[in-house]
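Q: I'm writing up a methods section and want to include an example of the input and output format. Could you take the sequence below and give the corresponding predicted structure tokens, formatted cleanly so I can copy it straight into the document?
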Amino acid sequence: MPRNGRRRTHNKKAIAIQAMMDLESTMLGNQDTTILNSASSLILRIGKKHGIRKSGYLGLTICRKCKKALIPGRNSRLRIRSKSLKISCSECMSVRTLGPSFGRD
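A: Here is the clean output for your methods example:
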């Protein structure tokens, strides 16, 4: 038995995945920019700490430079040009280009 008396039986990665799913549902169900920005920065922080990547559309809706939620028409621009997708953040002026084989699943 360890010194502190008890062993940890919970899996930290499973708890982190559940927290990211809760934050994702918060992002999808809310329109307030402060809540969206704080949820997106928390998703990135939890993902970096526990090695979890967000697949699908949610990964495209977060700016990797300024860590804010990208809302097309409000603070970002989404353009489709010659089989590529360009996502521009109007807050930090960063541009993300995804080629014809980017995954959305």
